[in-house]
Each structure stands twice: as structure tokens, then as C-alpha cells.
Amino acid sequence: MPQVVVVGAGLTGLTVAFRVKRWAANVSIVVLEPRERPGGNIGTEWHNGFRVERGPNGFLDRTPAVPDLVRDLGLSERLIAASEGSRKNRYVFVRGRLHKLPSGPWTLLTTPLLSLHGKWQLFTEPWRKSQPTRADESVHEFVTRRAGREAADIFADALVTGIHGGDPQQLSVAATFPRLPIMEREAGSIIRGFLQAARQRKNEAKAQGVPPPGPMRMWSFREGLQVLIDALAQQLGEAVQYGVAVRSITPAADGSGWLIHTDRTHYTADAVVLTCPAYEQAAILQDCDRVLADEIAGIPYNRIAVVALGYHHEHCPTALDGFGYIAPQNTRRDLLGVQWCSSIFPDRAPPGFVLWRALCGGVHRGDQVDWDDDRLVNAVHREIQQAMGVTGEPVFHRIIRWPRAIPQYVCGHLERIARIDELVARHRGLFLTGNAYRGVAMADCVEQAGLVAAQVASTVVAASKTRTPSGDHHAPA
Ligand SMILES: Cc1cc2nc3c(=O)[nH]c(=O)nc-3n(C[C@H](O)[C@H](O)[C@H](O)COP(=O)(O)OP(=O)(O)OC[C@H]3O[C@@H](n4cnc5c(N)ncnc54)[C@H](O)[C@@H]3O)c2cc1C
Q1: How far apart are the C-alpha atoms of 457 and 4, rounded to whole Å?
Q2: How far, in Å, from the CA of 42 to the mean position of ligand 1?
Q3: Which residue of 6, 11, 152, 233 has the fewest C-beta atoms within 10 A of its own C-beta?
């Protein structure tokens, strides 16, 4: 029976294993995980009625990847959509107060977030002729060139902070928002590109006789994202081995597969899939391919502290029917932003209370992750007081520190990925995936996991067909 070892039981590793198991029935699969629980960045905690997400708060249905996985796990009925208010009402904290982010042309025209000049630059984007100043532009450079500096400082910054906790001046637009440069190339403008894409989706739906697709939505489960992780882990059963950290991998002496070394023992495999964070993948690959390991080690991470605070509802005068707010870099003090968790999904706080999650740190204030609990709680509470006019003290807090939280796709990331792909292709049966490469969102991780699982399944099935019953290997025909 072909053997597959998956390294890491985060969302990516669990999904790879689940898919390989489904698509290649005669494969023996093992998932190795150093912690005592599955899920990696994902996990839901429950403290006296407050339901706190450790990492992601929900996932977007930008592609069918996560909804399909949820369906295959039999969980579709348990999904809950984010509230309508959280989709429509998103804020930025600028010049000491909250401003609603514009959601359409009229609100863009009237928003106080942009000057007249800023609005003019944004609205004239479809007619702007400009060429990239360098091959791999940053998000900030790209948006400034297309829509003006003010739009870049506020809207692009809010987007990058909200998804990556990163710096728009460092992140590559082609790696983080690949559709934008494509729209510029194909439609000559971002606004025109979005309008064309919307028209195309509408026409396709009409041709298929189905209703036009609604706006993208965020989803979770009433009991939190832990539901998804638990279902995956349950499907895999004893295939997931906890408390096992992989230290290195080396090709088997006869070149037929891999040896996976842990502190206690080693495993053999026809295919090995690394899904752990990039810095761990680099360490694991040091002995086997130093050049490849060094490329992977070059992918940087930010640092994030998640500070969840609970308040009495009566102490929160601001109407809280929304998603929360982002603090753009040029006006930021201590917080990247705040998510109003109990306004987004039900059952996040006991009746009469609210639950909010502040994200602190990021690429420029990583030191905050090392602040002690009191200092973090006080900093978050002070800013929340100012932004939302909270009158009472928090009744609950929980802090989760991520010393290496989200990989940053800085300029040059796509070239690095191309070099990594070329080097990996020299190692038969080695697969690298996870959030360090082709998208950090849960939707990206699940989509990539599905693609890799299909490659793994076909590789091990093809390899097993070239073996004699005694287990000797034949050269492929
Ligand atoms: C604070 C925060 C908020 C986020 N918010 C959102 C959000 O709202 N929406 C969204 O879509 N995404 C969000 N993300 C991103 C998303 O959670 C991650 O990109 C995704 O969960 C990554 O999954 P993964 O399996 O690729 O990696 P990980 O979750 O990092 O899993 C990797 C696994 O590998 C294991 N491992 C490490 N070393 C070894 C070793 N030596 N041997 C074996 N195993 C090892 C780890 O223990 C871990 O379990 C957020 C991330 C963070 C940190």
C-alpha cells in the first residue's frame, strides 16, 4: 500500500489528508503534528459564555473550495452567515474617530475620508493611462498609480491590514491581490475590470437559468470554526498523530521514497507533503536541499496578539451593527483594528454582553506581542474607549499571542515561488503547500490543499502501479 506522510495538522494538512484518503482509497496516510490538538492557527475557545476564535474569525465564500469541503464533511446545515450589518457596515479609525467605509459610488462621493482631489483621482481611474514603475509593484505603489495617494493610504491600507496585518508599501500586489494587475492589463482599469467581471457573472447566471450570485459573504458555525477542524480530525481518526514534530526528511537510500525523521523514530513514505509554516519547512529541508531550504526561509512573517475583550452591552453607546474597524497605518496608534465578534456571528457573548477582538502588532509593532497582559488590555481598552465611547471596564479578557502569525508576500514573492517550484520539481514525491505560498486566507489554503491532494493521489497511485507484488520498484514505462 502506498504511504503518504503529511507534516502539520493545520487546515491545509487536514484537508490534504482528507482529500487524498477520499481520492486514493488504497493509500495509507499519516498526519504528524507536534501540538496536542489539530487546527494550527484555527481554534475556538469557550470561557464563561464568551466564544473566542484564536485565529481566523470566519471564511469568505470567494471560491467554492471551503463550502465544498464543508458539504463533503456533512456540515453545510450547521453553517451560519455573518450578519447583514457586518457586511455593509465597516469602519476605519481616522483622525481620532470612526468613519464608515464607502460601499458604492454615492457614498464614495460624499465620504469625508477623501479630499476633493482624492475623489477626483479615484473617479478618473478608468481613463488613467499609466505603466508600472517596476515589474513587481507594491500594493501601495499600484493603488497610488491607479487611483491616487489618498485611496492608497486609506482603502488599500485597510484591505492589507484586514487580511494580512501587513504593510502595503512592502506587499506585492501581484502576490496578494493577483486580480488587480490582471484587470489593469485586460480591461485597462480596475473599476472597468470589476464592472466587466460583475456583468460576466450576471450573464453566466442568466445563461444557466440561475439567480445572479450575491455579494461575497463571511461564514462560520454557531459553535465557531473549531467545528470544521473537529470534523476533519474525526474523519482522519488515528491517522493524525499528536505530539510528533518532524525534524528532517531525507530521500530513501534506494531513491524510492522518503524517510521522515522525528525525535523518536522515522517514517517511510512514497510521498511527503509539508504543510507546516515556512520557517519549519525550511528547517526540515536543510539536510535534503539547502538551496531550497534557504529560499523558503526567506518568507517573512508578522507578529500578532489577539486581544479579546468582553463588555456589558449597556456600557457600549455606539450602535454596533457592523464588522468592526481598521486603523490605517498613518493614523494608527496601538491597534491594527477591532472585530465586533458578537455583532458578526450569534452566540459569541452571553446575553447582555458584547465580545470584541482587537489585533495588535503587525509588521511594524511586533514588540506588542511581548507586552504583558495588563499593558495589552489597557492599550486596547483605552483605544476602544476613544473609538467607541465605551463607559465601563472590560468584564472579560483573553489574549492569544502569535509570534509568527501570517506570512508576508513581500515584493519578489512570486519570483521566489517560481524558484521554489523549480527546485521542488527535482524531488519526486515531495510536495510543499500551506499558507506561505499561494494565499493566506482559509479559502486559499483549502483550494491549494485540494490541488496538492490530487497531485499526491495520482503520484502515489502511479508509483504503486510500477511495483511488482514483492515490493520491488520498476522504472516507469
Ligand atoms: C490571528 C489570525 C487571524 C486570521 N484571520 C483569518 C480570517 O479571518 N479569515 C481567513 O480566511 N484566514 C485568517 N487567517 C489565516 C488562516 O488562519 C491561516 O492562513 C490558515 O489557518 C493556515 O493554515 P495552515 O494549515 O496552512 O497553517 P497552520 O495553521 O500554521 O498549520 C500548520 C501546522 O503545522 C504544525 N507544525 C509546525 N511545525 C511542525 C513540525 N516540525 N512537524 C509537524 N508539524 C508541524 C503546526 O503545529 C500547525 O498545526 C488568520 C490567521 C491568524 C494568525
Answers
A1: 9
A2: 6
A3: 233
**Residue 333 maps to which CATH number?**
3.90.660.20
CB 37 within 8 A of CB 30: no
C-alpha cell read off for 464: 504503486
Whole-number Cα distances in Å, 78 to 221, 223, 228, 231, 350: 6, 9, 10, 12, 20
Q: Which atom of ligand 1 is nearest to the CA of 441?
A: 11
Burial environment of residue 331 by CB neighbours within 10 A (0 to 12, 13 to 18, 19 or more): middle
CB of 43 closer than 8 Å to CB of 67: no
- How far is 444 from 448, CA to CA, in rounded Å? 6
Kindly give the pairing relationship between strand 396-402 and strand 218-221.
Answer: unpaired
Q: Are 369 and 401 a contacting pair, CB within 8 Å?
A: yes
pLDDT-derived band at 255 (thresholds 50, 70, 90) equals confident
pLDDT over 60 (residue 246):
yes
Residues 230, 266: one domain? yes
Instruction: Report whether 324 contacts 354 (CB < 8 A).
Output: no
Residue spans of alpha helices (H) in 250-403: 278-285, 290-297, 341-344, 373-388
* Binding site membership of 299 for ligand 1 (Cβ less than 6 Å): no
What separation in Å is there between the alpha carbon of 340 and the centre of ligand 1?
Answer: 22
Q: In terms of residue numbers, what domain contains 427?
A: 3-40+224-300+409-465
What are the tens digits of pLDDT across the range 192-228? 999 999 999 999 999 999 888 888 899 999 999 999 9
**Mean pLDDT confidence for 53-63:** 96
Number of other CB atoms surrounding residue 6 within 10 Å: 34
